[in-house]
Amino acid sequence: MELTLRDIAESIGGTVIGDDQVLIGGINSLFLAEKGEISFLSDPRLKDQIKGTKASAVIVKELTSLYQGPQLISPNPYLAYARVATIFAPPVPRFPGLSEKAIIGEGTHLGKDVSVYPFVYVGQEAVIGDEVVLFPGVYVGDRVTIGDRSVIYPNVAIMSDCIIGKEVIIHAGTVIGSDGFGYAWDGDVGVKIPQTGIVQIEDRAEIGAQNTIDRASLGKTKIGKGVKIDNLVQISHNVVVGENSIIVAQAGIAGSTRIGSNVVIGPQVGVSDHLEIGDRVMVVGGSGVAKSIPAGEVVSGFPTMPHRLWLKTRGHIRRLPEYSERLRELEDRVEELEEQLKRE
Predict the structure, then answer these.
(1) Is residue 237 annotated as part of the catalytic site, yes or no?
(2) 93 pLDDT exceeds 70?
(3) pLDDT by residue (tens digit) across 215-228?
């Protein structure tokens, strides 16, 4: 597929400076782009690469003299890149209809134009919406609902009664609705608490590979609309994640914590149980969240504190050996002075 630069600009709301009839057939980085491809400059540190790029056009925030070809002006080149990449991205491969090697339980409803690959298992009384794609090895439990145009990649398990919204993407190997980790102690023996709730994932959420999202002990674990979760994330029972929040790889959220909307949780963050994390909070990677965080704060460290305070604290940590030596010297001097005073 090839489009004119003008067509691309109109589709993303940009403006072309130069030849708007140049044909574009793909998008690539400044370093790798070839003739017929468009590239973008979103990081000023890469401005030297724009001089030598072979791209037929570039997306920039403002006109630059570093590149002599057509330029697509956009106030947010990185967002423009995302939208242009969507235009040229290959479609999700679809199996034509329902494979004879898939198993579909009694009472299950399949919507229009579904794509069900071989070796898919769908339990009883499930509801699979229109244009849903189920890749090989997908397990869908009894009474599960999957909304229109959702894509479930290979070896995903969606356990019984869970609800998946419309246009949800769940990547390979993820488990939705595994039992929450709930035990009561009888002396030295842990007694399992049955996990009778569900997981609900709302419209346009995207769940990365090898995630585990536990069903609620009672009620529901809920992932809000537009939430984006990276690979290797653990969401425990009864957690609620608000709309358009982002959780990055290797984060772990303990049970019954409520995360607001537009929150960003960085990689390898641990969040304790029964906390409240307000809207628009940012938690820097590697942090440990042990108490609730008000809306709008940026925190880091273990335990978390305001990010600027953590940066100052971290600077002092490196100097602790120096401080210790100076303190010892001061103590020795004070001891000498006290001895002198006694003799006087």
Answers:
(1) yes
(2) yes
(3) 999 999 999 999 99
Q: Which of 291, 319, 316, 295 is nearest to 305 (CA)?
A: 291
pLDDT at 318: 77
Average pLDDT, integer, range 33-38: 97
Q: Quick check: 153 pLDDT over 90?
A: yes
Report whether 72 contacts 61 (CB < 8 A): no
Per-residue model confidence (pLDDT) at position 305: 67
pLDDT digits (tens, 9 = 90+) for 280-334: 999 999 999 999 999 999 999 887 868 777 777 777 777 778 888 888 888 888 8
Q: How far is CA 180 from CA 138, 301, 332, 339, in A?
A: 21, 28, 57, 65
Question: What order do you get walking across the sheet with 26-27 strand by strand?
Answer: 15-17, 71-73, 57-60, 37-40, 26-27
Considering the candidates 237, 274, 307, 316, report the single residue annotated as catalytic: 237
